[in-house]
């Protein structure tokens, strides 16, 4: 498979531990993001990845908090898809996720890469979970950059 990034330029983060919190709602699409993420992580020599499945996006923040409390992971990556319907349900879930995930990240000082896709149509999510536009790739590259940066900062003391 042709890669949309230069695998030879991916920084090695061997020994890093990563937690993924994946919403089960729209699982076939979030599965593609997780698979792309793992592929990039393999190029970074990072294979210690635990996946925690939750029913939907609304359950992601609390799960991320419980994971962050363990202090076992160098980064947490969250995947979900929220499709706008005819009610305000979409907005409530999205705003709660953004607010609470931010709190977890700052309170526990663990980077959380958020790929909860708020879309108006499921076709928009499909477009962002395939090929070069797969948000799993973007999340992996962000996680690698942050883990590398924090390792440097931790070693500079």
* Adjacency order of strands in the biggest sheet: 2-1-3-4
Describe the main β-sheet briefly. 4 strands, parallel
Return the CATH architecture: 3-Layer(aba) Sandwich
In total, the number of strands is: 4
Outline, from the CA principal axes? globular
Query: What's the CATH topology label?
Result: Rossmann fold
Q: Which runs of at least 5 residues are low in confidence (pLDDT < 50)?
A: none
Count of structural domains: 1
What proportion of the residues form beta strands (DSSP E)? 15-25%
The CATH C-level class name: Alpha Beta
What is the count of helical runs? Answer: 5
Terminal CA distance reads: 41 Å
Q: What is the CATH superfamily?
A: Lumazine/riboflavin synthase
Mean pLDDT: 94
């Amino acid at each position: 498979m042709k890669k949309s990034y230069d695998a030879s330029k991916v920084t090695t983060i061997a020994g890093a531990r990563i937690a993924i919190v994946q919403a089960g709602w729209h699982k076939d699409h979030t599965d593609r993001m997780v698979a792309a993420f793992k592929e990039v992580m393999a190029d970074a020599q990072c294979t210690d990845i635990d996946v925690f499945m939750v029913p939907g996006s609304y359950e992601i923040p609390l799960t991320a908090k419980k994971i962050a409390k363990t202090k076992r992971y160098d980064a947490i990556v969250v995947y979900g898809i929220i499709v706008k319907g005819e009610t305000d349900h979409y907005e409530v879930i999205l705003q709660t996720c953004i607010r609470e995930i931010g709190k977890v990240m700052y309170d526990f000082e663990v980077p959380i890469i958020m790929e909860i896709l708020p879309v108006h149509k499921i076709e928009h999510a499909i477009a962002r979970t395939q090929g070069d536009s797969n948000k799993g790739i973007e999340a992996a590259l962000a996680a690698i950059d942050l883990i590398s940066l924090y390792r440097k900062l931790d070693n500079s003391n």
